Structures are given as structure tokens and as C-alpha cells.
């Protein structure tokens, strides 16, 4: 009896191993159309770099409306064919362009934002952030990555097509927001609402998001072009603790600041559950064929090995945010003098909501872990639920992925979950295919340049950005 039972167990284990191995062996690599990015004359490349440098010199910050006005005048002068041919509808300082193809087919919407974040740590900048310095290797300044560079590259591509007398096969819309860094309520949200009122539906909406990064983080040698098919949600909450005010020489057992510290410590000690969302699952399955066999076997059988993969991703700071809702205490307030007990103390915590998380589920979790005397409220300002997940097997995704694959370095396109936010969230009602990809190639350490000091773009990459957008506009264009 024991032998028969042991044999049955061994047989089941052998069958399981067979299933795992077969799934790993037959896992197909993504099949993409072969595309070549259009070429650009050398003199055009130098002129494009110089125009980008000029654009950086306009400090388009939220509190500088005159900078937007000057920037718009510059755009009209720098791209005359575009402004003669495309219709332009302003929404405050946001710009909505329409390129009428004359054909009745689903249009494309390209997004980018003109505004940039304020500058901190000025002493750490190698070149002043709004000087638009161009040296032998880089274009320096605010907006060279996030995201004025896309405004310029898209317009360069449109202008190049118009200069050659070319038209797209289907209509193209360009939406350049002016307040993405503060939530997009006056820019992207208004433009999206107007487009919805007009009944416009898009075959593709493309915004900033993923980029080409080294594949080492995912265990492969080939660079990876990460194309966002979803983005995390955003909410900030305020924790407030109340205590007995008085002289610090006679402190009570519990103080407002002490209770607040306990609350934050409890939340950090009990993180939200981790798991593989669909975008992360798709990403791992896409890179699986390029893995060594042992890792390929794991990624091809996530139905069994998900807990193991989640633990591995959780242990890496570069991938931890992909698997759960994250929290970051960002603001603290309490006390007026070093020897006075404050009556109240507060903290602001920013959460990035993973797919499946909701405002209600998050607040319930926060409330369960707060000590007595500490309350939670939603901070006024921007809020967004996690975005819808766009399909990774659509013609629109293939269109973007095949062009991403044609970028230098032969990157492997893969869907992924964007952990930051973008204007794309406002356009979800207008298309089934809302994607997020910035066609630049960076090293992992360059990520800190977004919103950080020494933002820059390699000057030889900017023409490749223009070529990417030119390829996107030219794909299927009328000849």
C-alpha cells in the first residue's frame, strides 16, 4: 500500500515537472512586424537639437503664465507648416491640435505636457536648468526628459511630414497639457472632456511613460522597451494626532507627535498585500523566452511560482513598486517651540494604488492600523483610481512595440505597469488602447534625473525620438 502511494506521488511529481518543462519550452516569443525608423538628414538633426535647447529656455512652471505665452509664440515660429495646416484649439495654456486627413478611420492621439517641475538643489546642477545648454554629448535642462522633449519631438515629426507634402492615413490629434505635474485638471481633463463631447474615439492614445532600460533588472542582457498598459492610482491622506498641550518638562505618557510616529510606524510595518497584476505578469511572460532556462521555467509557470517571484521582486528596490500599493510619508507638521507640547501633529502620506486597490479599501486598511487618537482624512487635491488595463495583444500595441523595437540597441518591447502618473489617465474613455512610452534609452541611474537635478538627454537620442514619432505618424499613411 505504501509503495503504491509513493509511486502515485512520484508519478504526479513527474507529470508536474513535465508540464512545467513543456510550458517553458513552448512559450512563444512575441511576434512583431519588422519596421525601420525613417531617416533624417544630418543637418535636420542639428537644427532639431537646437530647437529643443531653445524650448528648454522657457521656464514653463505652474506660476509662470508668461513663460507659456512666450513658448507658444516660439512654437508658431519654429513649426510654420504645422501651424498653417493643423487646426489649434487652446484650453487655457494647453494646446489641442487636429490634423485632418480627409479619411474616415479611427484617429491617433499623441499626448505630451509643456509644464515642468520646480527646481531644487540648484547647487547640484552642472548647468543652469533653464539655460538649454548643449555640449558634445547632452542637451541639459528641465524638460529634456519630462516631458517638453516629447512636445518638441512630435511637432518636429509633423513638420517634417508636412514639408514633404505627406498626410497621415487617419486623423491625428495632439494634446499638449500645461498642468500635468499638478494633476491635469485644467489641461488634459478639459481637452479630454471636449473630445468626448465631440464623439471622438481613438485607435491609439500614446503618452509618456515607460522607456528603454537595461534588461539586467529582469534578468536578460537585451535592453527592454517598457510600454505602459496601465498606471497606478494616486491619493494622499492626512494623519492627525491630538494631545495635551503644555510644558515639555511635564510630558504625558502619550503625546501628539508620539502617537503620530506610532501610526506611521504601524503602516510601514504592515504593507499592503503584494501580488502580480496583469501588466507585471505580461511583462515577465514577455521576457521569459530570453531568460536562462531555470528562470524561463519559473516565468512560464507563474500559476505555480508567483509567490517566489513576488518575494524576489519585493527584495529589489527597482521592482518593489510593481507588486503592491506603496506608501511614502512626504510632509510632517507639529509644534511651535522646542519646549512646548503641541496640541496637534499631522503627516501627509502619498499612496500609489496598485491595480485592484480602491480608495475605500485603502482607507479601511489605514483606519485599522491607527492608534486611538489618530484620525485620517483625504488630503484635498489630485486623486485618481488605478487606470484601466489596455490590451497587450492589440494592433495599437503592436504598432508602438514594433517601432520601439526599431530603436537603437534592438530593445525587447514588453508591457508594464507605470508606477508614476500621467495625463493619459484623463483619456481612458476615448480609447481601448491607452499606452505610455517615451522613446528614449536610459541607464537605471538616470531615473533620478526625473524631477531631480541634472535632467538631460543624450543629443544623439533626440533625433531618434523624432524618427520614432515620424514612424508612428507614417505607419499606414497615405502615399
UniProtKB/TrEMBL annotation:
Pfam families: M20_dimer (PF07687), Peptidase_M20 (PF01546). InterPro entries: Bact_exopeptidase_dim_dom (IPR036264), Pept_M20A (IPR047177), Peptidase_M20 (IPR002933), Peptidase_M20_dimer (IPR011650). Keywords: Hydrolase, Metal-binding, Protease, Zinc. It comes from the Bacteria. The keyword Transcription does not apply. One of its GO terms (biological process) is proteolysis. The keyword DNA repair does not apply. GO terms for molecular function: metal ion binding; peptidase activity. Residues 229-371 form the Peptidase M20 dimerisation domain. Belongs to the peptidase M20A family. PANTHER family: N-FATTY-ACYL-AMINO ACID SYNTHASE/HYDROLASE PM20D1 (PTHR45962), N-FATTY-ACYL-AMINO ACID SYNTHASE_HYDROLASE PM20D1 (PTHR45962:SF1). This is M20/M25/M40 family metallo-hydrolase.
Amino acid at each position: 500500500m505504501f509503495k503504491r502511494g509513493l509511486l502515485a506521488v512520484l508519478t504526479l511529481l513527474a507529470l508536474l515537472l513535465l508540464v512545467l518543462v513543456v510550458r517553458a519550452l513552448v512559450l512563444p516569443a512575441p511576434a512583431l512586424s519588422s519596421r525601420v525608423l525613417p531617416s533624417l538628414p544630418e543637418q535636420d538633426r542639428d537644427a532639431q537639437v537646437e530647437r529643443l535647447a531653445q524650448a528648454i529656455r522657457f521656464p514653463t512652471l505652474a506660476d509662470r503664465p508668461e513663460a507659456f505665452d512666450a513658448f507658444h509664440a516660439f512654437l508658431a515660429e519654429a513649426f510654420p507648416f504645422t501651424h498653417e495646416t493643423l487646426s489649434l484649439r487652446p484650453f487655457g495654456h494647453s494646446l489641442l491640435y487636429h490634423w485632418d486627413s480627409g479619411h474616415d478611420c479611427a484617429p491617433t492621439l499623441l499626448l505630451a505636457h509643456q509644464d515642468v517641475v520646480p527646481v531644487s538643489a540648484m547647487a547640484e546642477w552642472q548647468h543652469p536648468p533653464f539655460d538649454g545648454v548643449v555640449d558634445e554629448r547632452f542637451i541639459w535642462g528641465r524638460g529634456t526628459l519630462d516631458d517638453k522633449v516629447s512636445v518638441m519631438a512630435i511637432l518636429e515629426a509633423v513638420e517634417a511630414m508636412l514639408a514633404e507634402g505627406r498626410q497621415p492615413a487617419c486623423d491625428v490629434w495632439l494634446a499638449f497639457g500645461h498642468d500635468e505635474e499638478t494633476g491635469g485638471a485644467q489641461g488634459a481633463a478639459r481637452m479630454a472632456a471636449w473630445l468626448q463631447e465631440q464623439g471622438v474615439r481613438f485607435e491609439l492614445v500614446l503618452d509618456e511613460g515607460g522607456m528603454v532600460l537595461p534588461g539586467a533588472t529582469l534578468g536578460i542582457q537585451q535592453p527592454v522597451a517598457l510600454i505602459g498598459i496601465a498606471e497606478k492610482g494616486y491619493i494622499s491622506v492626512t494623519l492627525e494626532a491630538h494631545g495635551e498641550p503644555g510644558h515639555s518638562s511635564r510630558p504625558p505618557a502619550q503625546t501628539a507627535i508620539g502617537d503620530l510616529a506610532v501610526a506611521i510606524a504601524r503602516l510601514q510595518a504592515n504593507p499592503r498585500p503584494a501580488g502580480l497584476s496583469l501588466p507585471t505578469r505580461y511583462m515577465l511572460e514577455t521576457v521569459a523566452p530570453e531568460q536562462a532556462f531555470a528562470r524561463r521555467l519559473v516565468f512560464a509557470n507563474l500559476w505555480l511560482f508567483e509567490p517566489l517571484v513576488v518575494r524576489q521582486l519585493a527584495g529589489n528596490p527597482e521592482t518593489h513598486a510593481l507588486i503592491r500599493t506603496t506608501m511614502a510619508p512626504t510632509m510632517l507638521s507639529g509644534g511651535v517651540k522646542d519646549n512646548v507640547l503641541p496640541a496637534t501633529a499631522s503627516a501627509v502620506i502619498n499612496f500609489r494604488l496598485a491595480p485592484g486597490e480602491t480608495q475605500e479599501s485603502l482607507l479601511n486598511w489605514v483606519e485599522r492600523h491607527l492608534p486611538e487618537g489618530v484620525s485620517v482624512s483625504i488630503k484635498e487635491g489630485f486623486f485618481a483610481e488605478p487606470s484601466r488595463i489596455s490590451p497587450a495583444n492589440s494592433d495599437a500595441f503592436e504598432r508602438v512595440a514594433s517601432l520601439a523595437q526599431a530603436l537603437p540597441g534592438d530593445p525587447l518591447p514588453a508591457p508594464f505597469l507605470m508606477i508614476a502618473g500621467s495625463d493619459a489617465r484623463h483619456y481612458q474613455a476615448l480609447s481601448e488602447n491607452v499606452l505610455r512610452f517615451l522613446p528614449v534609452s536610459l541607464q537605471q541611474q538616470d531615473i533620478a534625473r526625473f524631477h531631480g537635478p541634472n535632467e538631460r538627454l543624450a543629443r544623439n537620442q533626440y533625433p531618434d525620438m523624432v524618427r520614432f514619432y515620424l514612424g508612428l505618424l507614417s505607419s499606414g499613411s497615405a502615399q
